[in-house]
Each structure stands twice: as C-alpha cells, then as structure tokens.
C-alpha cells in the first residue's frame, strides 16, 4: 500500500522568503519518505485580515485605502516570487495570475462600496483571494526548486453547504471529487498544492470554513483521500503547555490525546482549529503539529487516548489556555422558577442570532441563567433575549437581562484530572494566592478540563499563575 501524507503550512510558514525556503526543504524531504504528498496552504500571514478589512471599509463606502492594500499585496507576493523563481517566463506568469486576483479585490471592494453592504457571501469571495494567491506562489516556488508540483484550488473539490463564513463540507461529494482531482496528479508524481480555508457550494459559490480553517481543510482532505498522516506546520514547536506569547517558558507537549487537544483548541489555543480533530480521529489518521522554523524538532503527536492514569511526567494539568473578548450574559428573576422552558427559550433566542455559547456557568440556578458569548455579539444577544422574554419582563417574572464588561475564559486541560482529587482546589488556591478574582466556573462536561471566568485585565496573570502549576 502506498503511503500518503497531507501537510498544511500556516500563514507565517509561507509568509517570507526564509519561511518558504524552509517549506520547500520540508516538502523535498517528505517526498523521499512518502509515496504521495499533498500540500495545503494558508494565505501569507496578515493577508486574510488585510482583505477582510478592505471589504469592511468598502461596506462603509471607504475605498481610499484600496490602492495601498493592493500595493501591500503585490509587494508581499512578488518579493517572494522574485527571490525564489529563476525562470523569467514562470515568474512573469505567476505574477500576472496574482495580479489578476489583486485586481479582482479592487473590483469587488468597489462593488461593495456601491452597494454599501458586504454580504457573508461577498466577504467569503474576498477572503478566498488570500489562499488563491498563496497557492499559486507556493506551487511555483516548489516547482522552481525542481519538485514537480501543481496548484489546484480546493473550490474544485471541497464541496460545502451555503453557510458562508462557516461552511460545512458535504463529505460524500467531497470524497469523490477530491480523489478524482488529486489522485491523477499524484499518480504522475506531481504534488498537488491546494488552498486551505475555502470550498464551494454545489453551484460554485466560494465559501470559507471559518477563520483559521486551513487546519480543517487539511483534515478534510486527509480524511477523504484517505491519507495516513496529516502534519500541521506552524510557527511554534507543536502544542505547548500554554501560548508561548503569554508565557515564554511554555514547553512543548510531545504527546497529547484527541480529547485533550479538542478542549484546548475549543477553549482558545489557536495552534489548531477545533474542527480539525474530528475528521482525522474518525478516519483513524495520525496528526502531528510541527515547526516550519525548526523542522528537526519532533513537535507534538496526537495519540488516541492517554495511557495509564493520564499523567505525563506526573503532571495532572497539562496545559492552560484563554479565550479573550467574551461577555457573561445573565438572565435573572425570582419569578423565573415559574416560567416554563426558560432555559430552552433562552438558548433558542441566542441560537437564533447565530451566536455560539462557549461556556454555561455553574452559578446558573433556577433563579438565574448565566453564560458567555463573544463580546462583539453581546448586544445582539441581549436584544434577542429581551424580545423573547418581553412578556415575562413586563410581568416582572424576569427582573433583568444584563451583560458584564469584557471577560476571559481560562481553561486548564489534562486527562489525568478525571482521576485526581483536589485539582480544582489547587487551581482556585493558586489563583487566590496570586490575587486573581474568579467570577464564575464551569467544569467541562468532558472531565478533562475546568474552565473559569476572570476579568479581562486578569487574563495574563491567571494564565501565568496556572502555568506555574504545570511546570513546578
Ligand atoms: P498558523 O498560521 O500556522 O495556522 P496560528 O497563528 O493560527 O498559526 O497558530 C499558531 C500560534 O498559536 C502560535 O504562534 C501561538 O502563539 C498560538 N498558541 C496559542 N496557544 C498555544 C499552545 N497551547 N501551543 C502552541 N501555540 C499556541
Ligand atoms: N487564512 C485564513 C485565516 O487567516 C485561514 C488560515 O490561516 O487557517 O483565517
Ligand atoms: Mg492557524
């Protein structure tokens, strides 16, 4: 049986000449060890934000920053192309293709400005341009390095529903199309280099899988081929005990279970998109996270479940993570006891706004319900709740529906917590000793995590304090 590897390169991993040189070497090495290799790429770092900001400004009628955005995109892509593609015909061809995409950004933004509105569908078309540019660039530089490679847009085979900005793939159709498009290339010894993050509806409208979704793309492609392994190449040495941007001493976790990474990813560890886990786990595919800038480091391997008591080196808590910019919403009133189906109606009203709830606190009682939502959606959620409970509010069964200022959700993760008494005690004493006030708590239903809520100003202190429990 031939062995297949899917490798995904993140934004920083394709974000500069040096990064691309390293990526080329990684691809060259993979080609030696694997029969078949597929490469998935993100947009160059900063590009997706720039595209979305341009579209957002355009929706307010502002197009004066467009020439600057176009110039930035040209410089970013063309500098790399010029440094790494020697053949002038090839160089001019890839520059022309990328330039076309930049022109289409300008056209799209002008159209958005005229309409005075950017629909989710239009935002996806704009956002897709980042990966559509980087895929051409990466394929051209890999091919120029003497490794046969071809760019192919995943819109040709990742088929999704029309839930723009957070689309869901149709795995059945995607399986057939992915095999149909990628296998013939691989049969000829060519490495398909494809776009992460994007897909298309059956009618051909471009969709995106949600921010950070290129990891998910790699998992989808890995699952449907199927591949033996999916490797996520990023800018840190794998999954670490916490975000190294918050705590410099963060350490790589050589192994982590699917359960644990699922909690970490869901609760804010940006290193892996939370949707990545399910497809690879279901298909029994290996997953590894490694560093483009330190390729000899083994990074992190995902393992099916934690051995023995779940402790690594005697550590019960393995990692700590934070989600910032959330708000706690509380519905409260002494008459709530008598309101039928109040929780179902409350969460129904939240769901109708398209908001997902990362945490429901245990402070919830029959006289109050309390949960977190992303800060930017708090206002919409409050209006929806006030509408849903208008008559209970008028009757004073519900006294008020209100929101806190910005808070952060801090989560500690470790499969060993399930078997170890007193972990919560240690967590809360440590925070208390370090002067961090805990506003609310929620034990994860998976038993491998505990989440708590702190004021946004306490985020870093809480993460640092809990990280000391891991390394000491
Ligand atoms: P990419 O562009 O490669 O997808 P991301 O920026 O999406 O990279 O994710 C990598 C970043 O995730 C790291 O630079 C790091 O700051 C952050 N991060 C957050 N939590 C963790 C963690 N527990 N382990 C490793 N990295 C983390
Ligand atoms: N480029 C996309 C984003 O910035 C997808 C990704 O990088 O995974 O969200
Ligand atoms: Mg990412």
Short structural summary:
This protein has 472 residues and is α/β, with parallel strands linked by helices. It contains 14 helices and 17 strands. The chain has two domains: 4-235, Acetylglutamate kinase-like (Carbamate kinase, 3-Layer(aba) Sandwich); 307-472, 2-Layer Sandwich (VC0802-like), CATH 3.30.2130.
SSE blueprint:
Elements: E1 4-9, H1 17-33, E2 36-41, H2 47-59, H3 66-84, H4 88-115, H5 120-144, E3 149-152, H6 171-187, E4 191-195, E5 198-200, E6 206-208, H7 214-224, E7 229-234, E8 255-257, H8 258-266, H9 277-283, E9 286-291, E10 300-303, E11 319-332, H10 342-351, E12 359-360, E13 368-374, H11 378-388, H12 390-394, E14 400-403, E15 407-413, H13 423-433, E16 438-443, E17 449-455, H14 459-471
Helix pairs in contact: 2-4, 2-5, 3-4, 3-5, 4-5, 6-7, 7-9, 10-11, 13-14
Bound molecules: adenosine-5'-diphosphate, aspartic acid (ASP) and magnesium ion.
CATH topology-level fold name of the largest domain: Carbamate kinase
- Please give the radius of gyration in angstroms: 24 Å
- CATH class membership of the largest domain: Alpha Beta
**What oligomerization state is this entry in?**
single chain
Number of helices: 14
Low-confidence stretches: none
Q: How far apart are the termini?
A: 46 Å
Number of strands: 17
The secondary structure category is: alpha/beta
- Percentage of residues in DSSP E strands: 15-25%
The overall pLDDT average reads 94
């Amino acid at each position: 049986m031939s062995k297949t590897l899917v490798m995904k390169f993140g934004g920083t991993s394709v974000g500069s000449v040096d990064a691309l040189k390293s990526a080329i070497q990684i691809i060259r090495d993979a080609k030696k060890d694997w029969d078949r290799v597929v490469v998935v790429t993100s947009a160059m770092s900063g590009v997706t934000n720039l595209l979305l900001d341009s579209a957002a400004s355009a929706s307010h009628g502002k197009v004066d920053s467009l020439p600057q955005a176009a110039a930035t995109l040209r410089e970013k892509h063309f500098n790399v192309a010029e440094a790494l593609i020697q053949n002038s015909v090839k160089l001019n061809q890839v520059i022309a293709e990328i330039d076309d995409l930049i022109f289409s950004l300008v056209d799209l933004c002008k159209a958005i400005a005229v309409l005075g509105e950017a629909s989710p569908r239009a935002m996806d078309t704009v956002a897709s341009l980042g990966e559509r540019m980087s895929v051409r660039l990466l394929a051209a530089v890999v091919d120029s390095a003497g490794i046969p490679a071809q760019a192919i847009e995943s819109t040709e085979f990742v088929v999704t529903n029309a839930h723009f900005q957070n689309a869901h793939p149709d795995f059945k159709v995607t399986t057939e199309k992915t095999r149909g498009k990628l296998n013939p290339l691989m049969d000829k010894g060519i490495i398909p280099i494809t776009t992460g993050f994007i897909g298309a509806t059956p009618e051909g409208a471009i969709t995106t899988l949600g921010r950070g979704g290129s990891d998910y793309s790699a998992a989808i492609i890995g699952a449907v081929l199927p591949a033996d392994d999916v490797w996520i190449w990023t800018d840190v040495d794998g999954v670490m005990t916490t975000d190294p941007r918050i705590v410099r001493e963060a350490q790589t976790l050589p192994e982590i279970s699917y359960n644990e990474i699922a909690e970490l990813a869901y609760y804010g560890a940006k290193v892996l998109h939370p949707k990545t886990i399910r497809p690879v786990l279901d298909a029994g595919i290996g997953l590894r996270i490694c560093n483009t800038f330190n390729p000899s480091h083994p990074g992190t391997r995902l393992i099916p479940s934690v051995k023995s008591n779940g402790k690594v080196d005697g550590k019960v808590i393995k990692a700590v993570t934070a989600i910032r910019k959330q708000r706690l919403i509380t519905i409260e009133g002494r008459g709530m006891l008598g309101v039928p189906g109040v929780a179902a109606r409350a969460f129904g009203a939240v769901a109708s706004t398209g908001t997902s709830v990362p945490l429901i606190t245990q402070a919830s009682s029959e006289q109050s319900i309390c949960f977190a939502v992303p800060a930017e959606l708090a206002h919409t959620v409050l209006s929806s709740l006030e509408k849903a409970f208008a008559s209970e509010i008028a009757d004073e069964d519900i006294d008020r529906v209100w929101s806190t200022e910005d808070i952060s959700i801090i989560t500690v993760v470790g499969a060993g917590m399930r078997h170890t008494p007193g972990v919560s005690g240690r967590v809360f004493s440590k925070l208390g000793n370090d002067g961090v006030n805990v506003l609310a708590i929620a034990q994860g239903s998976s038993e491998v995590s505990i989440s708590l809520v702190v004021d946004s100003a306490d985020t870093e202190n809480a993460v640092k304090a809990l990280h000391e429990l891991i390394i000491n």
